[in-house]
Write a structure and sequence with these properties.
Chain A: InterPro entries: LRR_dom_sf, NTF2-like_dom_sf, NTF2_dom, Nuclear_transport_factor_2_euk, Nucleotide-bd_a/b_plait_sf, NXF1/2/3/5-like_LRR, NXF_fam, RBD_domain_sf. Chain A: It is found in: Cytoplasm; Nucleus. Chain A: Keywords: Cytoplasm, mRNA transport, Nucleus, Transport. Chain A: GO terms for molecular function: RNA binding. The complex is a heterodimer. By secondary structure, chain A is an alpha+beta fold. Among the domains of chain A are: 80 residues, RRM (RNA recognition motif) domain (Alpha-Beta Plaits, 2-Layer Sandwich); 158 residues, Nuclear Transport Factor 2, Chain: A, CATH 3.10.450. In chain A, 33% of the residues lie in helices and 18% in strands. The longest helix of chain A has 20 residues. Chain B is α+β, with helices and mostly antiparallel strands. Chain B has one domain: Nuclear Transport Factor 2, Chain: A (Roll). Chain B has a six-stranded mixed sheet. The chains are: A alpha+beta, B alpha+beta. At the A-B interface, α5, α6, β10, α13 and β12 of A face α1, β1, β2, α2 and β3 of B.
């Protein structure tokens, strides 16, 4: 299109001028245009609400010890695949259902089984299962609980329990059954998996609680839709920590608990407690305990090996802070030009002339924050009655009124704000969103008030503009959010100046050594 | 063109979404960091003090690497974004400010802005982050 070609040429000329003046202003990395995707791992299994109490009979069971033999074959556990497996299972079971012979193994899976205490779950299942069963190698893997049975008719009976048992929240519990190899070593696999998952959280202060908590939470596909969970995180934490809470209580009574740490036992006897039912092999028991309780300093009277999880919290550094982000040269050009023009009028012209810069249905709101004890801040009071902060403002009518929503209203509001002088050289710009239809950017910097009692007062501001393209290759403001605060404890300019073309001086300041380093990083 | 009544409802909805979102976001950031990326769209971009992070995988790595945090939010504001910009996808701009302490670092004042976009399921509407821009107020001296 002619229009676009002309505008590109104009921009290039402008940019050429700009470049000559700032030879060291290097181009920051553009955001990737082909972001990597991560397959959503967790299925969207939803539980229906029912109101039937489940009667749980206590039925003792035994879990024999098994030697390790290698690693698991991981299976895709999405509901769709499970249904497929169910069909396969049924076909394969046709032959041996009436046999009831041992020797054919089946893997029993309870999706979201991580929520449940092992003993409780197995008892519940047993209570509804028409035949007694012996679960082998019960373990948790990601969100699921698994165990094995060695008998086709038992597997079949367990399959029928699916959907006929409910948890404490009246959510239906499903059971999936699939043919499997004889259970191999689960602990090697479990350990490596758990290390992957727990590793990042173990580095933090609240580690063991977080590990299971996070697993619990990441099972929710639409996390924000679960109001109950968000509102009662501790309730869900308790459920997911079921196993350990129970065992920790036992240990506590032996007087070896560090009570302050809550669920993090400082010293635990791994030999005799109920954790053994989950991890039959003693060495795997120790490893698993360590994974979950890295603060455990002493185990069975021996010094525990330090967990090799790759470093501690103290080694985590914050990424280096960098300057403006524009995304591309063209955008930089466009945005800087827009800001110059905007502030030229905002500072030196009649703000009503900004009418042309706004979309007819644009929105604007203002928030100010200041330290009430600072005497200079009392001047900000004139902004305060227009200030919109949802944390402080609960009146729904005021909330609407303080959001200006036609361009006429907006420029009228801007006109009554104190006169200002913005330091464009202090501007920091982040272009954080860009599509063909929309540009989102933030500008931060400082300005001076140039009228009345507050003459000379320096304020810091952040302004967010969302714009849509206009016919004359400009930007049209559709959202405008202004945030004003004190510039700093002494009211000084504490941001590193970033040179920009200023509309009111013809010569550009040369970049200092420091500034050159800053813009080229 | 929306009537005033529609606009009020529109604004109410945006405010409710913003408040709920802010509570969940910072609690998740502080206490359940690993679940944080669930709040982002797959193609979401984060600009964190000038560092650009795009896509869920990069975001996961980024949040894993960030030290544990304690956020205190003092300011929240939001504006619905006109559909002309968003091609009819319901979008809200949410802006926050406050203080944050990352483990091993001094406390900073921060500003953050989110572009939230509504994803409707049969049961409810879920808001996800399309874009996130985070800055320390004193970024230049940190």
């Amino acid at each position: 299109h002619n229009h676009q070609v002309n505008s590109v040429q104009r921009r290039e000329r402008w940019w050429g001028t700009f470049r000559r003046r700032f030879p060291n202003w290097s181009e920051p990395d553009s955001p990737s245009t082909n972001p990597s995707f991560r397959q959503q791992q967790d299925g969207d299994a939803t539980a229906s609400d029912t109101y039937v109490d489940s009667a749980v009979r206590y039925t003792p069971y035994a879990i024999p010890r098994y030697h390790r033999r290698g690693t698991f074959h991981k299976q895709d556990q999405t509901p769709v695949n499970m249904q497929r497996e169910q069909k396969l299972l049924e076909r394969s079971m046709e032959g041996c259902r009436l046999n009831g012979t041992s020797g054919s193994w089946f893997k029993i899976t309870i999706p979201f089984g991580i929520k449940y205490d092992e003993k409780w779950l197995l008892n519940l299942i047993q209570s509804q299962c028409s035949v007694p069963f012996t679960p082998f190698e019960f373990h948790y893997e990601k969100m699921q609980a698994h165990f094995f049975v060695d008998n086709a008719s038992i597997a079949f009976a367990l399959k029928n329990v699916s959907g006929n048992i409910w948890d404490q929240d009246n959510e239906r519990i499903s059971i999936f059954v699939s043919p499997s190899d004889a259970p191999r070593s689960v602990h090697k696999e479990l350990k490596s998996e758990k290390v992957q998952q727990i590793k990042p959280t173990m580095k933090k202060r609240d580690d063991s609680q977080e590990a299971l908590d996070i697993q619990r939470l990441s099972s929710e596909a639409d996390f924000m839709g679960h109001d109950e969970m968000a509102a009662n995180p501790s309730k869900y934490m308790a459920t997911s920590l079921g196993v350990h809470e129970e065992n920790v209580t036992k240990v506590e009574s032996a007087g070896e608990m560090d009570k302050k740490k809550g669920l993090e036992p400082q010293q635990m006897r791994a030999g005799g407690n109920a954790l053994c039912t989950t991890f039959p092999d003693k060495s795997s028991n120790i490893n698993s305990i360590l994974e979950l309780f890295p603060k455990l300093s002493c185990l069975d009277g021996q010094e525990s090996p330090r967990p090799t999880l790759g470093g501690t919290e103290a080694h985590k550094k914050l990424p280096t802070c960098k300057g403006s982000v524009f995304g591309s040269e063209t955008l930089k050009n466009l945005v800087l030009q827009f800001l110059q023009q905007y502030y030229l009028i905002y500072d030196y012209g009649d703000r009503r002339d900004l009418l042309g810069a706004y979309h007819v249905m644009a929105r604007f709101s203002l928030t100010i924050l200041f330290n009430p004890e600072d005497p200079a801040s009392s001047i900000l009071c004139k902004y305060f009655k227009e200030s919109r902060n949802l944390k402080m403002l609960k009146d729904p009518y005021l909330r609407v009124r303080l959001l200006k929503h036609t361009k006429r209203d907006i420029v009228d509001s801007l006109s009554v704000l104190p006169k200002t002088q913005h330091d464009l050289s202090s501007f920091l710009v982040d272009v954080w969103f860009q599509t063909e239809m929309m540009l989102g950017l933030s500008v931060s910097g400082v300005f001076k008030e140039v009228e009345g009692k507050s003459h000379g007062c320096v304020r810091a501001f952040t302004r967010i503009f969302i714009t849509v393209p206009t016919g004359n290759s400009g930007l049209c403001i559709i959202n405008d959010k202004l945030f004003v605060r004190d510039a700093g404890p002494q009211g000084t300019w504490n941001t590193l100046p970033i040179p920009m073309v200023t509309p009111y001086s013809s010569s550009m300041p040369a970049l200092s050594q420091e500034q050159q380093k800053m813009v080229s990083s | 063109m929306a009537t005033s009544m529609d606009f009020k409802t529109y604004v109410d909805q945006a405010c409710r979404a913003a408040e709920e979102f802010v509570n969940i976001y910072y609690e998740t950031m502080d206490k359940r960091r690993r679940a944080l990326t669930r709040l982002y769209l797959e193609k979401a971009t984060l600009i964190w003090n000038g560092n650009v992070v795009t896509g869920l995988e990069a975001l996961t790595n980024f949040f894993e690497m960030l030290p544990s945090s304690e956020f205190q939010v003092n300011m929240v504001d939001c504006q619905p974004v006109h559909e002309q910009a968003t091609q009819s996808q319901t979008t809200v701009l949410v802006v926050t400010s406050g203080t944050v302490k990352f483990d091993g670092n001094k406390q900073h004042y921060f500003n953050q802005s989110f572009l939230l976009t509504a994803q409707s399921t049969p049961n409810n509407t879920v808001w996800k982050i399309a874009s996130d821009c985070f800055r320390f107020q004193d970024w230049a001296t940190s």
